[in-house]
Design brief:
Layout (H helix, E strand, L loop, with lengths): L4 H6 L2 H12 L3 H7 L6 H8 L8 H11 L3 H7 L28 H18 L3
Helix pairs in contact: 2-7, 3-4
């Protein structure tokens, strides 16, 4: 999944979702099925590629459950709520924060997720 370095640094919702999906090894169709078809694979593709930037809270809730990430984080990335200055490790995405000694910035977290997706994509090509 190629991404532009500058889009990762900005931490867009689409890049974030694509990184999580890749890190978990899900296909677009698998996510569609896991959401009970609440989120079609075509819609998710448009979301990940930045063609859709503000999905409904219902879509974000479905994705937060499938990806096991904070609903608040997705709402924040979509621009529905303001970033919390008091976020803790417990509200951060996945295991990347588990291995961090200090809290990660959003840019650091996005970069780690992108790198993890890259590493996992190389496993099957060795």
């Amino acid at each position: 999944m190629p991404t532009k370095p500058d889009s990762v640094a900005t931490g867009t919702l689409g890049v974030y979702l694509a990184s999580i999906r890749a890190a978990k090894g899900f296909t677009l169709r698998e996510v569609e099925e896991a959401t009970g078809k609440d989120v079609s694979n075509a819609y998710l593709s448009q979301l990940e590629n930045g063609k859709i930037t503000k999905p409904s809270p219902h879509v974000l809730h479905s994705l937060s459950e499938v990806y096991a990430v904070s609903y608040d984080k997705l709402m924040e990335k979509a621009g529905y709520i303001k970033p919390s200055s008091s976020r803790t490790k417990e509200t951060r995405h996945g295991s990347a924060a588990t291995f961090a000694i200090d809290n990660l910035t959003s840019a650091e977290e996005d970069e780690l997720l992108r790198y993890l997706a890259y590493v996992r994509s190389k496993k099957g090509k060795a």
